[in-house]
Input
Amino acid sequence: MPRRLYCRVPRQDPAAPGSKNRAMLKEFREFILRGNLVDLAVAVVIGTAFTAVVTSMVEDLITPLIAAIGGEPDFSALSFTINASEFRYGDFINALISFLIIATVVFFFVIKPVNALLSRLRTEPPVAEETHQCPECLSEIPIAARRCAFCTTQVAAAR
Output
């Protein structure tokens, strides 16, 4: 019976050039599949779509409504000329209205609800209303405190 020859494949040294590429690819894959990166990509896409909707609303609904009241049918046509340079301030007015609408929506539908949720979920007790300054670090501490929470200096309870 013929003898079989087995060839052992040596394991790659971590310092070998090929293993660095695999480690880098693994790290890149983990980076791409990280949850907050995907969330950020979705937020950018939704934000872009929302901006297009608001811009259309300003140009197609709000500007004509203001025009019905003020008499100017299209803000984008508003401009003035100085020394052969045209300044189109109507486009700026449209962009400003779009910005104000987006900022209002973000404030009332994102910032206010998140702040309300965080205030409900806050676990630390509210700080006592009556405070005095720590003689060492000058931070505000409750009047009944015997030790500063910031610098741990013992203080006499003020009454």
Summary: The chain has a mean pLDDT of 78. The first strand starts at residue 80 and ends at 82. The chain is about 55% helix and 10% strand. The first helix runs from residue 17 to 32.
